[in-house]
Structure formats: C-alpha cells, structure tokens
C-alpha cells in the first residue's frame, strides 16, 4: 500500500501533441480513485505514466516516498489490469496468474498458495487449468484481476477493465471490484470513460478534459458542486441542460434572462453573460405557470422514470427532463418546466462555477 | 431450395472437382513418372511407347543406390546445410523483424524496402562476387560457404513475414509482461515467440526447403565430395558420356522423403502461418 503523488506531470508526444498538462494529484494510501473523462482527455496516458509504460515529459511521479520517473515498470511494485485483459493466450489461467511470481523467483509452494488464494477470492478455482480462449469475457476479466492480485502490489492500476463486458456483467463486476479493493485495501487508480462507474466506485473522482485537471472531489460533490461547465455536463446522465442567460441589475437583485427563461434573484453579482444549468432530474414538469415553456418531442420510458426530450418555444433548444414514470405526456403536448432555484447551477463566461447556494432567492417568475 | 436448384449445384460441384482432378493429374504426373521409373527395369524407362505402370516392378534401383552411392552422406549433409541455414536465418530474422514491428526509427521504411530488393537478385547474378567473398573469408569448402549465402537469400522473405506476424500480437501482452517483471529478452522468448509459432513454422519450412534444394552454391563453393548434399549428389551422376537416369530418379525420390515427413507434421502450422494477418480477427 502506498500513496501516489503526481506533481505538475506533463506528457507531450513526439508529434507535439500535449496529452497531459501539468497534472498534480495525490492518491492517498488505500484510496480508490477513478480517473474519468472523454476520449483523448489524457486519462489512459496518465495511468500509463504511473505504470511506467510511458515516459514523463515534465514533472514528477512518486509512489510512496520514491520518485519513480526513471524506475522500470517491473520495479514499481504495481499491477495493472488492461482493457483487453492482456491474458497470455498460450498459458493456462494458473500459468497466467503465476507468471509474474515465477519471474520474481518465488518458491513453487508459495506461488501455488497465492494463486489458489486469489482464485478462491475471485471464484475461479475450477478454471485454473483452462486456457483464456475457453473462458467467457467475465471469467477472463476475473483472471486479469487475479493476475494483478497475486502479485500483492502497492498500487492497482486499472485501464477501463469493464468496457468489454455486457451491461449486466459490468454491474456485477463493478461491485466485485469494489469488494476486492476494500478487502485488500490497496491504493487503486481506475480509468474509465463511464461516469456511472466513476460515481458508484470512487472515493474520489478525478475529472480530466483535454489533458487538464477539471476537478478532484468525492462523487457527490462533483455532482452537486461541479467546478465548471465541463464537469457539470460530463457528470450526470442525461447531461445537465444549459441556458445562455444575460444578467442585468434590477431593483433588489439581478435578472437572468434568455429567450427561454427569465429569473429574478436577490443577489448582487456583476452583470454580463452567464450559463444557467439545470439537471434533468431537477425539473418539475406539468405544473402551470413554471419558467420554461416547451413542446414534447420524444418520451423515453425507462421503467423507473421517463426521459422527456423537449423543445423550448423561445429558441427551439433541446431540453431533457427526467420525470416520474407515471407522468407520460404525448408528442406535441405543451409543457411548462420549473425548478427549485437551489438546484440550479450558474457558470460565468469562462465556464467557472458561480456559487449559487450562497444567494437568496427573492422571487420566481 | 428446389430440386432443380439442388441438381444445378450438384452438377457445378462435379464439374469443379473434374477440373481440380485434371489439374492435380497434370501436377502429379512428373512425380508419378519419377517414382514409377524407379520401380522399372532399366530398359523399360526409355521404352516407346512409355509405360505408366511398371510391367515388372522391382526395387533393385533402391538396393543399387544403397550400395553404390553415398546417399546417406548426402542426406546428412543436406540436413546440416538446411538446419544451419534455418538457425542462421531465424537468428537474424527474428530480431530484425521484431525491432521493426515494435519500434519506429528513422529509415525503417527504407530498411524494409531495401531488404525486399535483395530478394529481387537471382543468386546466379551474384555468384562471382559471392565466390570472392567466400574465398576471402576462408570459407571455401566449408558448410558455411553454402549456409551463409542461403540464409542471405531467405532472410528478406522471413523478415517480412515475421514482421507482419509480430505486428498482429497485441502490444498490451508485452506491456503486461513488462509489469509482471519480464525483461525484453524474456518477453520475446516467453510471450512473443510462443505466440508466433505458426509464422515460425512456416518460416522454418520455407528456409529448410530452400536450403535443401540448393545446387548452385554447393556446386560453386563445395568441391569436397564428402560435403555434397542431395541435389549435388544427383548432379554427380550426370556423366559426360553416360547418365544413369534410374539411379538419379531413385536418389531424387529418397531425397524428397524427409521433406514429405516434415511437411506432414507441420502442415497445419504452415497454412496458419501463410494466411496470418490476412483477415482481421
């Protein structure tokens, strides 16, 4: 177990592509951190730099007290689970799991004991003599985890380990990985583009975009208080709805106005352009006299609730609302959407969060 | 499908098999003639009209070859030359192909193309220059005088085939092995080469066959009859005044047997190696 520290780490590839830009991050001992972001945001590059599979262009990576920039992957005491599992096809499950231990010169009895212990933990004891091609995707995934576990590393690195599994198996393995991580208490850095995995598994979420760090916080904080417009849009499904509004001073407060929404709040903030964000689940639909007038385009019943895809009458903008499953309007119906101003998010022209929670609402229009 | 449809596809199959059998017949006829001639009495080989089936089959030719020629020595020498060529070729082709498949370096494309250009020269064009090199290095009348040029001529094909195959092996496997603690050499020997088995077997077979049938290099660089291989042994039976065709054909048949055995054992791998990388899996 060890703390992992990244200090101003940058990665520039040979073709001058900046993959990671001055990333600083501390992953505490035993913590489960999920690095999340869209494709090309630098999350896998970051993980590969920690693993030693990519060189670091600038900055320092430390595992425990040791700076590991120039330490070979095999000497970093880490274990990695790859997206493709990377099981050795010509070796049995047992041989796959014991490969690393054999290379490090462990005794046969010790190797067998550790392999069997890990196999038991992962419930793959009866697969030890099978070859990877004989296993299902879920079983291969377990073997890949087993191979990482037997090495008893200081840090687990996982690169989108569940992305090749079907939805049901993914949910199952998600809880399995959490259970194992808690049981072993090993510092874990887990990369994914799936925000559900990030929200459900992480102690802390690290959100990257374009190689830049956007936010590091517990999942609920990323959801409730996103640092910026990107995080607000990325975390939460369906994504947050954004309205470009103009703030003007009025008597006793500020008016936020756009073709779709008009809102008077008793706050004193600089006038100018802002983005107002409302999560689909924070909309209240169907009550008369709400803020936003819309027309129903598509209704998606999800079982537990319905997703409404609506078009605003002001600027024909698409808005998504998540409503109770019993509320089921039809295409073409006119609906007024409302929201509690405590639930709205406000971002300045640079996309940075403006703390709305500190404001006092005086009036809703 | 209707009955008429069944009939049509059945007829098409019959026609197809007919054409294939005819082609097979054309290809096999020389081999059959060679083999059947070894079982004929000497006067029947050139009898007109030629007989397809020996009228009075005899294995006398095989007994004669056994007692009157050095066929075992020639086979032994063929093995030494072929195995030596295979070993030298693989020792050079594996690192060359692997480094090209896994690394980007300045001039890689030029290197790979120039390797291919070497294959375009016929050995006979280079034989005078090669003779000079072989004698300068004191290799004349040694097995290496045949092994080194044979390896040089099989290298381009092998480098390209292994290069293509190495590229199909996922890099993640090697990265995983690196994290597991494997050195670069261990990654090559414990992960990459076992997975390259089909291509390696195809490579070994191609090189072995090429070296087994070499006549020009042996004819030019080996004058010591104790080092003759099978083709050179056959060639030694061509006399200025008289050629013993029956014995020549018999030695040729015996010379093919080790290759047939080799091919029968490795066929599955050879086909897999030849088609490797042809389709995305």
UniProtKB/TrEMBL annotation, chain A:
<dbReference type="GO" id="GO:0055052">
    <property type="term" value="C:ATP-binding cassette (ABC) transporter complex, substrate-binding subunit-containing"/>
</dbReference>
<dbReference type="Pfam" id="PF00005">
    <property type="entry name" value="ABC_tran"/>
</dbReference>
<dbReference type="InterPro" id="IPR015855">
    <property type="entry name" value="ABC_transpr_MalK-like"/>
</dbReference>
<dbReference type="InterPro" id="IPR008995">
    <property type="entry name" value="Mo/tungstate-bd_C_term_dom"/>
</dbReference>
<dbReference type="InterPro" id="IPR003593">
    <property type="entry name" value="AAA+_ATPase"/>
</dbReference>
<dbReference type="GO" id="GO:0008643">
    <property type="term" value="P:carbohydrate transport"/>
</dbReference>
<keyword id="KW-0067">ATP-binding</keyword>
<dbReference type="GO" id="GO:0005524">
    <property type="term" value="F:ATP binding"/>
</dbReference>
<comment type="subunit">
    <text>The complex is composed of two ATP-binding proteins (XacJ and XacK), two transmembrane proteins (XacH and XacI) and a solute-binding protein (XacG).</text>
</comment>
<protein>
    <recommendedName>
        <fullName>ABC-type D-xylose/L-arabinose transporter</fullName>
        <ecNumber>7.5.2.13</ecNumber>
    </recommendedName>
</protein>
<dbReference type="InterPro" id="IPR047641">
    <property type="entry name" value="ABC_transpr_MalK/UgpC-like"/>
</dbReference>
<keyword id="KW-0547">Nucleotide-binding</keyword>
<dbReference type="InterPro" id="IPR003439">
    <property type="entry name" value="ABC_transporter-like_ATP-bd"/>
</dbReference>
<keyword id="KW-0813">Transport</keyword>
<dbReference type="InterPro" id="IPR012340">
    <property type="entry name" value="NA-bd_OB-fold"/>
</dbReference>
<dbReference type="GO" id="GO:0016887">
    <property type="term" value="F:ATP hydrolysis activity"/>
</dbReference>
<comment type="function">
    <text>Part of the ABC transporter complex XacGHIJK involved in the uptake of xylose and arabinose. Responsible for energy coupling to the transport system.</text>
</comment>
<dbReference type="Pfam" id="PF08402">
    <property type="entry name" value="TOBE_2"/>
</dbReference>
<dbReference type="InterPro" id="IPR013611">
    <property type="entry name" value="Transp-assoc_OB_typ2"/>
</dbReference>
<dbReference type="GO" id="GO:0140359">
    <property type="term" value="F:ABC-type transporter activity"/>
</dbReference>
<dbReference type="InterPro" id="IPR027417">
    <property type="entry name" value="P-loop_NTPase"/>
</dbReference>
<dbReference type="InterPro" id="IPR017871">
    <property type="entry name" value="ABC_transporter-like_CS"/>
</dbReference>
UniProtKB/TrEMBL annotation, chain B:
<feature type="transmembrane region" description="Helical">
    <location>
        <begin position="245"/>
        <end position="266"/>
    </location>
</feature>
<dbReference type="Pfam" id="PF00528">
    <property type="entry name" value="BPD_transp_1"/>
</dbReference>
<feature type="transmembrane region" description="Helical">
    <location>
        <begin position="143"/>
        <end position="166"/>
    </location>
</feature>
<feature type="domain" description="ABC transmembrane type-1">
    <location>
        <begin position="75"/>
        <end position="266"/>
    </location>
</feature>
<feature type="transmembrane region" description="Helical">
    <location>
        <begin position="71"/>
        <end position="98"/>
    </location>
</feature>
<protein>
    <submittedName>
        <fullName>Carbohydrate ABC transporter permease</fullName>
    </submittedName>
</protein>
<dbReference type="GO" id="GO:0005886">
    <property type="term" value="C:plasma membrane"/>
</dbReference>
<dbReference type="GO" id="GO:0055085">
    <property type="term" value="P:transmembrane transport"/>
</dbReference>
<keyword id="KW-0472">Membrane</keyword>
<dbReference type="InterPro" id="IPR000515">
    <property type="entry name" value="MetI-like"/>
</dbReference>
<dbReference type="InterPro" id="IPR050901">
    <property type="entry name" value="BP-dep_ABC_trans_perm"/>
</dbReference>
<keyword id="KW-1003">Cell membrane</keyword>
<keyword id="KW-0812">Transmembrane</keyword>
<feature type="transmembrane region" description="Helical">
    <location>
        <begin position="187"/>
        <end position="212"/>
    </location>
</feature>
<feature type="transmembrane region" description="Helical">
    <location>
        <begin position="110"/>
        <end position="131"/>
    </location>
</feature>
<keyword id="KW-0813">Transport</keyword>
<dbReference type="InterPro" id="IPR035906">
    <property type="entry name" value="MetI-like_sf"/>
</dbReference>
<feature type="transmembrane region" description="Helical">
    <location>
        <begin position="16"/>
        <end position="35"/>
    </location>
</feature>
<keyword id="KW-1133">Transmembrane helix</keyword>
<comment type="similarity">
    <text>Belongs to the binding-protein-dependent transport system permease family.</text>
</comment>
């Amino acid at each position: 177990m060890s703390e992992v520290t990244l200090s101003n780490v940058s990665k520039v590839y040979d073709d001058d592509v900046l993959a990671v830009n001055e990333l600083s991050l501390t992953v505490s001992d035993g913590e489960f951190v999920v690095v999340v972001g869209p494709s090309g945001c630098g999350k896998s590059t970051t993980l590969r730099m920690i693993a030693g599979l990519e060189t670091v262009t600038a900055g320092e990576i430390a595992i425990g007290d040791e700076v590991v920039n120039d330490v070979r992957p095999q000497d970093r005491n880490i274990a990695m689970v790859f997206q493709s599992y990377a099981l050795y096809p010509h070796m049995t499950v047992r041989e796959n799991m014991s490969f690393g231990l054999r290379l490090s010169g462990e005794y046969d009895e010790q190797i067998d004991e550790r392999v069997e212990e890990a196999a038991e933990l992962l419930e793959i004891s009866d697969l030890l003599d099978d070859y990877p091609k004989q296993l299902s995707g879920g079983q291969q995934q377990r073997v890949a985890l087993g191979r990482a576990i037997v090495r008893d590393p200081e840090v687990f690195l996982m690169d989108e380990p569940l992305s090749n599994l079907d939805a049901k198996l993914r949910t199952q393995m998600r809880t399995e990985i959490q259970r194992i991580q808690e049981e072993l208490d090993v510092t874990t850095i887990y990369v994914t583009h799936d925000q559900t995995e990030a929200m459900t598994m992480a102690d802390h979420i690290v959100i990257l975009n374009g190689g830049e760090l956007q936010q590091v916080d517990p999942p609920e904080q990323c959801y409730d208080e996103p640092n910026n417009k990107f995080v607000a849009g990325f975390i939460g499904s369906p994504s947050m709805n954004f309205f470009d509004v103009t703030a003007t001073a009025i008597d006793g407060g500020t008016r936020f106005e756009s073709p779709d929404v008009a809102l008077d709040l008793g706050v004193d903030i600089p006038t100018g352009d802002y983005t107002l964000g409302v999560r689909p689940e924070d909309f209240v639909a169907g009550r008369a006299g709400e803020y936003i007038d819309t027309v129903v385009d598509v209704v998606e019943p999800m079982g537990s609730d319905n997703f409404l895809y609506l078009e605003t009458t002001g600027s024909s903008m698409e808005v998504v609302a998540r409503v109770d499953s019993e509320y089921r309007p039809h295409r073409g119906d006119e609906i007024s959407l409302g929201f509690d101003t405590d639930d709205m998010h406000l971002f300045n022209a640079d996309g940075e969060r403006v703390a709305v929670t500190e404001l006092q609402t005086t009036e809703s229009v | 499908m209707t009955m008429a449809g069944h009939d049509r596809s059945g007829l098409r199959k019959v026609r197809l098999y007919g054409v294939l059998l005819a082609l097979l017949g054309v290809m096999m006829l020389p081999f059959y003639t060679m083999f059947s001639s070894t079982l004929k009495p000497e006067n029947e080989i050139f009898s007109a009209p030629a007989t397809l089936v020996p009228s009075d089959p005899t294995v006398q030719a095989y007994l004669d070859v056994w007692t009157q020629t050095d066929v075992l020595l020639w086979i032994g020498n063929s093995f030494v030359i072929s195995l030596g060529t295979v070993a030298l070729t693989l020792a050079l082709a594996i690192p060359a192909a692997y480094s090209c498949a896994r690394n980007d370096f300045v001039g890689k494309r030029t290197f790979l193309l120039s390797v291919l250009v070497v294959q375009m020269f016929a050995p006979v064009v280079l034989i005078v220059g090669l003779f000079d090199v072989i004698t300068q290095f004191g290799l004349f009348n040694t097995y290496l005088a045949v092994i080194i040029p044979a390896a040089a001529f099989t290298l381009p094909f092998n480098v390209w085939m292994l290069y293509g195959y190495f590229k199909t092996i996922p890099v993640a496997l090697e990265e995983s092995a690196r994290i597991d603690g494997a050195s670069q050499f261990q990654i090559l020997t414990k992960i990459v080469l076992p997975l390259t088995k089909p291509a390696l077997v195809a490579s070994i077979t191609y090189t072995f066959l090429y070296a087994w049938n070499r006549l020009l290099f042996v004819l030019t660089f080996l004058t010591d009859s104790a080092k003759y291989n099978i083709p050179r042994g056959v060639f030694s039976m061509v006399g200025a005044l008289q050629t013993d065709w029956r014995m020549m054909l018999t030695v040729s048949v015996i010379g093919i047997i080790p290759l047939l055995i080799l091919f029968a054992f490795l066929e599955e791998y050879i086909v897999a190696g030849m088609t490797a990388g042809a389709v995305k899996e």
